[in-house]
Amino acid sequence: MSVVASNATGLVARRARRAWLLVFLSAFCAIAIATHWPNVHVGDPERPPDKIIHFIAFGGLAALLWQTGWIKSRLALFAAGIGIALVDEVTQSIGVAGRQSSVEDVVAGALGVFVVVAGTWAFAPMGGVAANLRQQRRRVAEQFVFSRAGPWLSLLAAAMFGLVVMMPISMLIDSEFPRPNPLQAALVGAVLGVLLSCIIMLESLVRRTLSVTAQKPRCISCGEEALDGATCTRCGAETDLNLFIQWPDAGGVKFLRLAARPLMLGVGIVLAVTAVALSLGALRMTFGWASTLDALLHGRAYGMTSVLDLTLVGIAAACAVRSFRKRSARLADGASDYCIACAHDLSRTPVATEVYLGKTAAGVSQACSIGRCGECGAQFLRELPRA
Questions:
Q1: Where is the domain boundary, 84, 109, 124?
Q2: Among candidates 88, 119, 129, 130, which has minimal Cα distance to 105?
Q3: 335 vs 117, more confident
Q4: Residue 178 burial by CB count (10 A; 0-12/13-18/19+): exposed, middle or buried?
Q5: Does position 299 have pLDDT exceeding 70, yes or no?
Q6: Residue-level pLDDT at 1
Q7: Are 373 and 258 found together in one domain?
């Protein structure tokens, strides 16, 4: 009976965490220096982009802190992120010329942290044994990627490309509005460009790693192609070879069906909240509470509108991703009935005699076995009845 191996303490995992730690510390020092440099004024003094900067900076720090593995709880991540933003803001007013503390800056940073926490919730493990094994396989592939310098350089190049392309496009779009703010538009465009290009590059690197390791499995501890069966001849660690199975993916029309409802959910959240915000303007002439709330919303510091808009889009995107991953997990867990690749009925297809002890995303152990579709040859996992 085989057991899912853990890569939490292997050399590959440690290298990946060290790389993320280096990036986090570098970003932390850069932000601390930038926010405490005396007499710095960015952009138009009447319309400064500092709220957007705080949203991006402290949200980014929270994301990097999560990747270091220092913090395991989303609640602790939220508290740590707000703590960093609060300490940074308070220390600016202590003996730093031209700097002062602002509650709005702390709120903007906290909202950035909140969006990142929502993102960690969206990508949390979910589903049964089959879905969890797929997710484990991807996490191992990501650790292989982040443990080497080459992929990091590829991500850096992709980030620079996205920044160079999206900054002028955002500024051009912003110039068409009645009161353009080129610097704020450049910041938002740069972040969107970096995120989009890095996501595309990371997906390419992970998919390539998944394909390569399916042909030549690696030790999940040291990362070397030195496996003799399930044992590494270099470090002696045991590796679960089921982590390198090339599971079929939903493609074409099936993928569009999976993504359609989550996409509508995300768009619906944005439209619903926008409709509520717009209705306050119409209700303020009739109801006192609506007038008070509308006055609070319109009386906030410059730039908070953009921060709230980004928060709304971030939360809607997190809900959409969570919904998509739930639907994908259900599809993976039901793959023992119908083949994901060719939709062949697998209910009568036999599985291997070897028992595989897997775990669901909730940590519940479950005996399973692996079979192969008689039509297309794609592999599937079937949970065995409990004794």
A1: 124
A2: 88
A3: 117
A4: exposed
A5: no
A6: 36
A7: no
**Count of beta carbons in the 10 Å neighbourhood of residue 179:** 6
Residue 127 · residue 330 · CB < 8 Å: yes
* Residue 109 C-beta-side C-alpha neighbours within 13 Å: 25
Q: Among candidates 134, 19, 117, 35, which has minimal Cα distance to 76?
A: 117
Q: What's the rounded Cα separation, in Å, for the pair 255 and 319?
A: 18
Q: Is 105 found in the same domain as 7?
A: yes
Segment (H or E) for 365? strand 365-372
| Percent of the chain whose pLDDT exceeds 70 | 87
Short-list 77, 79, 106, CA closest to 91: 106
Domain check: are 387 and 279 in the same one?
no
Q: What are phi and psi of 144, to 5 degrees?
A: -60, -40
In a domain, 271, yes or no: yes
Other CB atoms within a 10 A radius of the CB of residue 15 amount to: 18
Residues 353 and 286 in one domain: no
Of 105, 124, 143, at which residue does a domain stop? 124
Residue 185's nearest CA partner among 194, 172, 200 is 172
Domain assignment present for 327: yes
CA distance 361 to 126: 5
* Structural domain harbouring 297: 253-333
Rg, the chain, Cα only = 24
How many domains does the chain contain in total? 3
Reading the block at residue 176, the tokens are 């068409």
Q: Per mean pLDDT, which range of 37-46, 75-84, 172-181, 185-194 is the poorest?
A: 37-46
| Cβ-Cβ contacts under 8 Å for 299 (sequence gap 6 or more) | none
| Nearest Cα to Cα of residue 274 among 257, 252, 297, 292 | 297
Residue with tokens 């394909």: 211
Sign of CA dihedral 126, 132, 136, 138: negative
> Same domain, yes or no, for 299 and 348?
no
Q: Is 62 exposed, middle or buried (0-12, 13-18, 19+ CB in 10 A)?
A: buried
